[in-house]
Amino acid sequence: MSKEILRKKLIKIRKAKFVNEVINFSEFEKILYTLIPKKIKNVGGYYPINSEIGCLDILEKLERNNFKISLPVTKKNNNMDFYQWSFNDPLKVSYRGIPEPAMKKKVYPDILIVPLVAFDNDKFRLGYGGGFYDRYIYKISNLKKILTVGFGFSFQELKKIPINKFDQKLDLILTDKGVKI
Q: Which distant-in-sequence residues (6+ apart) come within 8 Å of 47 by Cβ?
């Protein structure tokens, strides 16, 4: 099955069955405090759209625990960067209809929480098809060590996703049913 057909099918299921779902913070917290050195304090997340599994609750708890939070700002050339954001800061709606930080202090997260449409046993992800996250993960991994964590529903797991040379593998995936390491 092509990426486009898989994408349409899984987004339709997600919209029909799952609205405002969130990942259990305690699972993420276990990972955060057991796998990650204490010096890491910068977490990049996303603003959930299109029935994506939510991460705002987790980001808010992390911010209360003195983590620096950032969200992506997309550009028209299918690139993006992450900018520092706080729950006290305003957001503006981008040309893609996604809330983004209004303030522009670019950061490079140590941990990147990534939304997905689907994922496979090898921890490759299927996104919306623009390549934003693949480009960003490739770019930042050439600058520093980063932990990439996909957030998704267990039903989004497939045996194999069609991949190309630009697709970036995630380090782990957190679902409503547990962790894929």
A: 56, 71, 91, 98, 99, 100
Which residues lie across from 120 on neighbouring strands? 158
Q: What is the pTM of this model?
A: 0.89
Q: Stretch 15-35: mean pLDDT, rounded?
A: 66
Closest CA to 89 of 111, 108, 105: 105
Per-chain mean pLDDT for the chain: 88
Task: Tell me how crowded residue 165 is: count the other CB atoms within 10 A of its CB.
Answer: 4
The answer to whether 150 and 170 have CB atoms below 8 angstroms apart is yes
Asked if residues 73 and 80 have their Cβ atoms less than 8 Å apart, the reply is yes
What letter represents residue 89's amino acid? D
Q: Is 3-87+97-111+124-180 a CATH 3.40.50.2300 domain?
A: no
Cα distance between the two ends of the chain: 25
